[in-house]
Amino acid sequence: MLSEAIRTALKKSSHNPGLLEVMEYAVFPAGKLFRPRLVEALALDLNKELTSNHLHLASAIELHHAYTLVHDDLPAMDNDLIRRGKASTHAHFGEWKAILAGDALLIASFNELLNIDHKNHREIHKLMTWTTGAKGLIEGQFRDLLADGNLNFQEVVRIHELKTGRLIQLATLGTYLLTKNQTFQDKMDFLRLGREIGVSFQLLDDLSELSSRDVSPHEKAINPFISNIEHALRELRHSHLKLTAILFKHRLDHAERMLQDYFKKTQDHLIEEFSTIENNIGKDTEALKNWVTNFV
Length: 296
Description:
The protein contains 16 helices and two strands. The protein is mainly alpha-helical. It is globular.
């Protein structure tokens, strides 16, 4: 249902087959669909069903996520030639087509949000503007590129909050705003939940980067588990504990199972490749190994 909703939203966004081809290439085959699946799980926890409003929210988030990846991969930014196991959009189609397709996906994401029929639709739209704009995701990209790897650990965490956490906050708080009864404290809890999931998600991704036998010098220079393993592990522990507490407090069973499934797959990969990770870190990893072995 999630994939079909995203595909439908995408097809409605353009009548030009050439442009649509580039956009579809950027979106499909989808990755883990982590953010849409989080919307789905929270919808089942909070509303007992996945409604059309939830599908519109999930689709808007995924289209927006795809746009950020297209632009992140461009030569002027991260200059990545591979994305999800295939040539990145600009590597396959050329820069100008990738830029315009990314622009189109950005606009399509906000257009998809307009299909939400709920009393809180304006609040959800404002939330998306905040999470994805110059006070959110784009600020995170700006900070990341401006620093060029010259960051202390707290600055790294702040970038993770903005670049990764903000879009996940749109999924958590946006889904909560589609429920019938809301309180200010609960809104803050779902905002914090998105932040902690985002930071955990990105730190685990940083750690997974070190499972490669061919880690670039740039990655070694900026990876927090190499530059400050103690702080990185402490932040990972704290974020994981905080998100677990919020899931328990609000009895978010579907969301907990979805996240546990993701964490278990990540854990299995990290355990399998830990000797490579150890070699890339090049310092005492006993505490990290204990956490990786036991956190799920």
